[in-house]
What we know:
Blueprint: E1 3-10, H1 14-25, E2 30-34, H2 47-52, H3 54-73, H4 88-112, E3 116-128, E4 131-138, E5 141-151, E6 155-157, E7 170-171, H5 173-176, E8 185-189, H6 193-204, E9 208-212, H7 224-237, E10 240-242, E11 246-252, E12 257-262, E13 268-273, E14 275-278, E15 282-284, E16 317-319, H8 330-344, E17 358-360, E18 365-370, H9 373-378, E19 383-389, H10 394-399, E20 405-411, E21 417-424, H11 427-439, H12 444-449, H13 459-468
Parallel strand pairs: 1-2, 1-5, 2-3, 5-16, 7-14, 8-9, 8-14, 9-10
Antiparallel strand pairs: 3-4, 4-5, 6-15, 11-12, 12-13, 17-18, 18-21, 19-20, 20-21
Amino acid sequence: xxxxxxxxxxxxxxxxxxxxxxxxxxxxxxxxxxxxxxxxxxxxxxxxxxxxxxxxxxxxxxxxxxxxxxxxxxxxxxxxxxxxxxxxxxxxxxxxxxxxxxxxxxxxxxxxxxxxxxxxxxxxxxxxxxxxxxxxxxxxxxxxxxxxxxxxxxxxxxxxxxxxxxxxxxxxxxxxxxxxxxxxxxxxxxxxxxxxxxxxxxxxxxxxxxxxxxxxxxxxxxxxxxxxxxxxxxxxxxxxxxxxxxxxxxxxxxxxxxxxxxxxxxxxxxxxxxxxxxxxxxxxxxxxxxxxxxxxxxxxxxxxxxxxxxxxxxxxxxxxxxxxxxxxxxxxxxxxxxxxxxxxxxxxxxxxxxxxxxxxxxxxxxxxxxxxxxxxxxxxxxxxxxxxxxxxxxxxxxxxxxxxxxxxxxxxxxxxxxxxxxxxxxxxxxxxxxxxxxxxxxxxxxxxxxxxxxxxxxxxxxxxxxxxxxxxxxx
Length: 475
């Protein structure tokens, strides 16, 4: 006889495990199914984010930044480091420890909230009068029954035709995070978030990094002024960025990968790398869900079709995160997961897609929320802009990192904040103030009138807000 639950969540990534916990908090009996395994075959919930995405990449970014500071920046502070050495295996081992700590933390949270965890692959078995039967295929196989299903199966890396991932020579984010030696020549196809972050890690550790991007512009989704500054800084650091390229044949040899491509001037080129990272986007992970067994509708791009409340085409079946429309961001998945659990309970779940921040954890960091300047122009929205450079910020000078600026965009008539864009030190932390302000529909004047502690990087937000009205005090 199958076990019965009020809610079954398929997927234990940020959207899934958070949805399960919130549903349990609301009094439902909840099961969460996840198939990720650690090196020993044990349960490793947390999805791509925890295992081969957000968490491990930030661990390596931090380690590589320490290494670069020790080799190049410490001397300016009067700290002399002699005979600096690099132990990549230990660095990767630390990354693995951080991942395991997060895996174990999620398992603890599920247990604490009385969520029943199943380690295996969840899929639809059949629909019945009272709900759905879900098959769990793991060490064994069992079927559980539920009234509500939340699908949170995430996404997988998009494969470049003719360049299948072997995770040895042609790498996805998984292989890029597992290298234990620094490749002398590292190629990157795709200048998106994942590609730039991984390129930054290995460039700091000594790789010659070449970026091949099909689009004619760099970071096209980012505010244009920020993107131009980012490109300038990355090139200055040593990244070779090639835009507007057309990738041709890719040949994998014993110890190298050859990429043939046509550059933006139409000339045929050839590049040889020791390793090649392909980062050309991600696709929704619906393989193996057995959606056809219950008639769950997918859209033309393979995402699970949902409405604004994350309801699917089936009654009491919901979907959140990377497997549905919207930005593929862990925090967006979490917000949707909480909102769905609350909607199942008859509450009014809240997700504001206009105030979901985006962050690129390069150096300098890039963070944004709301509209870019080019979007406002395209939509014929009258606006005012204010910028403030970190070069004029006292705390940034003390840190020794004055790269970049803060940019505010506000409605020309009402002064409501329409977008905030930051490139510079700790942009990922600073953006939260802008998110809060926009969620409460604040004006740039509101931020300009709020007292900010001195000396802090956050003062750059106040100054940029003042600059919207042409009255910055320190620049």
